[in-house]
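Z., the sequence and structure:
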Amino acid sequence: MGVNGKANVNAGTLRSWFVAAAASLHEQRDYLTQLDAAIGDADHGTNMDRGFTAVVEKLDTSAPPGRLLTTAGSTLVSTVGGASGPLWGTALRRAGRSLGDAEGFAATDLADALDAALEGIVELGAAQEGDKTMVDTLSPVVRTFREQLDQGAVLEDALAAARAAGEDGMRSTVPLQASKGRASYLGERSIGHQDPGATSTALIISALEQAIADDK
């Protein structure tokens, strides 16, 4: 893949990412639903599985990566119930707009796209780290990925470190009291449960790492 700006990722890589994410979310559907049953509507696993399956069905790898992401985002908005559809839809559409119409993009462009995705989620969901949401996973992912690239890490190593940071963030949601979404209605009863949105986000980031590693 090369170092930093020399790494080039294309629509085929993104297709591999969504295929891997859809497979992982399908495999972990019942687990995600179990997590959501404790503090939510018990539909997160089903919703994410349905949404990413629909994304894979609609992927057009003849389109540039940015447009592929915006289409994926729109598909999630139309197929995923609850908060996850609008949040991930916004994230992917913001990321797609960040990439523009280029046929390929570098590691630093991916960092910019992840920044844009996180910014969209924070704006729409009004959540910050510590609120027991997907932001607790995605924020350390974005921060660590950028830091690793700035230190000269190659794309695969930067993503591996970012994925690990995101998984730490995911686990950090267990002792937190939810302050956003349906889980916040439970007050202190939300403490002791891992956030399902943070968990599915970790699965999606792990799929991205896998797709880029396989594309070497």
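Residues 4-214 form a domain with the Serine Threonine Protein Phosphatase 5, Tetratricopeptide repeat fold (CATH 1.25.40.340). The chain is about 70% helix and 0% strand.

Let me know what you think.
H.
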